[in-house]
């Protein structure tokens, strides 16, 4: 198992955001995490990354307990992140941002050349400062940076947010390619149908609790269940 989250309780100050969700992501598996605004999806990713460590419960990655490790150590072990706000250094060029994210782990090493093959527009962005880029361009930089860190799993927080439909399709195609290369993916996505199309399994989170888990296909096919759980 690449990632295993068990019964975590995460707080912001005294406010509890997660009430014991458990979740697993296997090797080369794409797992979608769906749920309404404020459900705790980002908080769950932040818990895994050590940015909002859980007060209770346990998180393991690649067989090792990471529950209370600092964020930089978790990243160095091979947990990649594509944050919802991209989080690039705005005044630095794309090339410099990619350089800062480049790392070796025990997992597959991706090269800048491979990223340029996945995103044909990337070569034209390398010399540009990130603050001059569009949302889609920034997303290419953010995904490339995550992969250059040689992750075993990548946590995507709403990668299609603010992107044109064509670029959303590019991002989804990229996820399939990552899976084919053996990478694991945990995908938080507002575009639930697109996420279910690409995912192997799905969890639905609501007010800090898992309300459904199962094969993505089953939820895609069961319209009544889908309406009840995710409103589409
Ligand atoms: N920095 C913070 N301080 C206090 N409360 C927070 C903070 N960030 C999130 N919360 C609260 O924690 C709960 C879960 O928020 P979270 O951002 O994880 O939800 P989400 O599922 O990612 O929502 P969205 O779909 O809007 O991104 C919400 O009630 C939110 O108000
Ligand atoms: Mg969120």
Short description:
The chain is an alpha/beta fold and 232 residues long.
Task: Please explain how this structure is put together.
This protein has helices at 41-49, 71-77, 94-101, 112-118, 122-125, 135-148, 165-180, 192-198, 216-221, 223-230, and strands spanning 3-12, 15-19, 23-25, 30-34, 56-61, 64-65, 79-82, 153-157, 184-188, 201-206, 209-215. With 232 residues, the protein is an alpha/beta fold. Helix 3 runs parallel beside helix 6. Helix content is 37%, strand content 25%. The protein is globular and about 45 Å long. Helix 7 (165-180) links the parallel strand 8 and strand 9. It has a single domain (3-230), classed as P-loop containing nucleotide triphosphate hydrolases (Rossmann fold, 3-Layer(aba) Sandwich), CATH 3.40.50. The two termini are 31 Å apart. Residues 12, 15, 17, 35, 37-43 line the site of adenosine-5'-triphosphate.
Characteristic key phrases:
232 residues; alpha/beta; six-stranded mixed β-sheet; 10 helices; 11 strands; 25% strand; globular; binds adenosine-5'-triphosphate; binds magnesium ion
| Average pLDDT score | 94
The H/E string reads: EEEEHEEHEHHHHEHEHEEHH
Provide the gyration radius in Å. 17 Å
> Distance between termini?
31 Å
Q: Could you tell me the CATH topology label.
A: Rossmann fold
For the record, the CATH architecture stands as 3-Layer(aba) Sandwich
Number of helices: 10
Biggest sheet features = 6 strands, mixed
CATH-assigned homologous superfamily:
P-loop containing nucleotide triphosphate hydrolases
Quickly count the domains: 1
Identify low-pLDDT runs. Answer: none
Overall spatial form: globular
Spatial sequence of strands, sheet with the most strands? 7-8-9-4-10-11
Bound compounds: adenosine-5'-triphosphate, magnesium ion
């Amino acid at each position: 198992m690449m990632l295993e989250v068990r019964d975590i309780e995460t707080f912001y100050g005294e406010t509890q955001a997660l009430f014991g969700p458990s979740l697993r992501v296997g090797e080369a598996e794409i797992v979608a995490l769906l749920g309404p605004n404020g459900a705790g999806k980002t908080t769950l990713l932040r818990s895994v990354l050590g940015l909002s460590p859980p007060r209770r419960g346990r998180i393991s990655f690649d067989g090792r307990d990471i529950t209370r490790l600092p964020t930089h150590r978790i990243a160095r072990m091979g947990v990649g992140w594509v944050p919802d706000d991209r989080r690039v250094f705005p005044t630095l060029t794309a090339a410099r941002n990619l350089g800062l994210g480049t790392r070796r782990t025990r997992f597959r090493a991706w090269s800048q050349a491979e990223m340029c093959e996945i995103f044909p527009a990337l070569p034209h962005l390398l010399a540009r400062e990130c603050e001059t880029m569009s949302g889609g361009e920034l997303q290419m930089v953010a995904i490339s940076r995550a992969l250059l860190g040689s992750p075993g799993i990548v946590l995507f927080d709403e990668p299609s947010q603010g992107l044109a439909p064509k670029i959303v399709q590019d991002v989804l195609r990229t996820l399939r390619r990552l899976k084919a290369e053996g990478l694991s993916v945990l995908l938080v996505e507002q575009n639930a149908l697109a996420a279910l199309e690409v995912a192997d399994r799905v969890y639905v989170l609501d007010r800090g609790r898992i309300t459904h888990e199962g094969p993505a296909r089953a939820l895609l096919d069961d319209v009544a269940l889908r309406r009840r759980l995710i409103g589409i």
